[in-house]
Specification:
Layout lengths: L1 H5 L20 E9 L9 H13 L4 E3 L5 E3 L2 E11 L2 E9 L4 H8 L4 E4 L22 H16 L12 H11 L1 H6 L4 E4 L5 E4 L2
């Protein structure tokens, strides 16, 4: 947390849960909103396969590991999370293209230990996809290339450039930006400080 505050990096929390993720302008986020299918829950092969097939066609070893991370040549280039609600599911992932890996390392480093039943953040050996030299330099061009990769498998997407304004959306955005959501709704945990002192929270 000190590094985040010192560098003015906002802390946000997604409704789908999961481990901590670092985002900057070098990271591309994909979200797939679909009907709820039990054979898709926790299974990222379907959502990653178009991208994996593209990488494999270029001679790279690409696959999803047991934690549903996207791996290229045994290094993590993308993570994933899902949420099921009201008969629908959202499956989303982050892909590292030219992320600041030093900032990522510093932002995700912790000096204290947390004991909790929440999803663990597991450190991984990561790399940027720019290192395999298959993608353009600029984010907008990367987006269009990734979009084309998926459209080759799934057909054309209808683009929605901006969500329609409504009181419902405004209220939800305000809730997600609030302190109560970002820090106040946590499972029970025990924070073990470097000194050995333990701080308990009932959640």
């Amino acid at each position: 947390l000190p590094y985040l505050y010192e560098n003015h990096l906002p802390i946000v929390r997604r409704t789908s849960g999961g481990g901590t993720v670092y985002h900057d302008l070098g990271c591309l986020n994909l979200s797939f909103i679909t009907p709820h299918r039990t054979d898709w829950v926790g299974k990222w092969d379907f959502f990653f396969n178009p991208f994996i097939s593209f990488l494999q066609s270029k001679g790279f070893v690409a696959f999803t590991n047991p934690r549903n991370s996207l791996m290229v040549n045994d290094k993590k280039v993308g993570g994933s999370a899902q949420k099921v609600s009201r008969g629908r599911m959202i499956s989303h992932c982050s892909l590292l293209f030219h992320t600041n890996l030093l900032a990522l390392e510093n932002a995700l480093s912790v000096s204290d230990h947390i004991e909790s039943n929440a999803s663990l953040s597991v450190r991984a050996n990561v790399m940027n996809l720019e290192s395999i030299q298959l993608f353009p330099e600029h984010s907008e061009e990367i987006f269009h290339q990734v979009k084309s990769i998926y459209e080759e498998h799934w057909g054309n997407f209808e683009e929605v450039l901006k969500l329609p304004e409504s009181e419902k959306w405004s209220a939800k955005i305000k809730e997600l930006e609030g302190i109560e959501w970002r820090f106040g709704r946590n499972p029970a945990f025990t924070l073990v400080l470097e000194s050995g002192l333990k701080i308990h929270s009932k959640g």
